[in-house]
Amino acid sequence: MSMKTNMDYWEFVLKNLPDSYHKWFEEEKKYLQKTITPDAKVLEVGCGDGRSIFDIFPVTKNVTGIDHDDKAIADAKNNFSSYPSIKILKADATKLPFENGEFDFVVCMTTFANFADKRFIILDEMKRVLQNSGKIIISVFSEDALEERMKVYKASGITIKSVENGKVVFDESVGDNISEQFSKEQLEDIFSRANLQIDDITKVNIAYLCTLSK
Ligand SMILES: C[S@@+](CC[C@H](N)C(=O)[O-])C[C@H]1O[C@@H](n2cnc3c(N)ncnc32)[C@H](O)[C@@H]1O
């Protein structure tokens, strides 16, 4: 059985970016830089190796990243070792180790797709650590992403157990083994059930970029 984790596969994706993902990430960067205010205090939930923290750099370096994967934490710590204001912590998104209202922005880039049935607990946690006028920014696969996602999964060699309505289930050995995609209507339903206000949902080819408030 493979010893690779979700993070190893994500690393493969980042090193072999197809055009569709590249365009999506360029749009993410523009969206983050236009939405986040200068020097704001930002939390990234599921930060991986810190790809998006680099995107935020021109706007603020007051950033904390959390991830529950040991390799992600080691890579992110290594990437930001010369930036004392960037804090990287091992934590699970279902139990964020922060006080209420600590952050001006909570961002979650490409990771919401992996939360499966924990998504409402995690949205509640994001909301809890957000200050009252703060914003949550989420980037997640759109309903048009499946073809591009399947190309990437096949190239990476990850073992797929099932694919149904855009929900791809991988072998359990990878850790976070579910990846989903959503229509705008599904996202609106999820966010309103989480009692979040929707400020914006913008479609960029294979993804939606969303801004939410309390
Ligand atoms: C697809 S990667 C995205 C990484 C990074 N945000 C990026 O866009 O490059 C998903 C990351 O979320 C992390 N993750 C998934 N579920 C999590 C949870 N419940 N708590 C903390 N981290 C989680 C994984 O370990 C992985 O590093």
Task: Lay out the secondary structure.
Elements: H1 6-15, H2 19-35, E1 42-45, H3 51-56, E2 63-67, H4 70-79, E3 87-90, E4 103-109, H5 119-128, E5 130-141, H6 146-156, E6 160-164, E7 167-170, E8 178-179, H7 184-193, E9 197-204, E10 207-213
Parallel strand pairs: 1-2, 1-4, 2-3, 4-5
Antiparallel strand pairs: 5-10, 6-7, 7-8, 9-10
Bound molecules: S-adenosylmethionine (SAM).
Question: Could you characterize the architecture of this molecule?
Answer:
- It is a single chain.
- Strand 6 and strand 7 form a beta hairpin.
- Helices cover 35% and strands 27% of the residues.
- By secondary structure, the protein is of the alpha/beta class.
- The chain is built from 7 helices and 10 strands.
- The relative contact order is 0.17.
- The mean pLDDT is 95.
- The strands form 2 sheets. A 7-stranded mixed beta sheet has the order 3-2-1-4-5-10-9, with helices on both faces. A 3-stranded antiparallel beta sheet has the order 6-7-8, with no helix packed on it.
- The chain has one domain: Vaccinia Virus protein VP39 (Rossmann fold, 3-Layer(aba) Sandwich), CATH 3.40.50.
- The longest helix is centred in the first third of the chain and has 17 residues.
- Bound molecules: S-adenosylmethionine.
- The site of S-adenosylmethionine (SAM) has 20 residues, from helix 1 and helix 3.
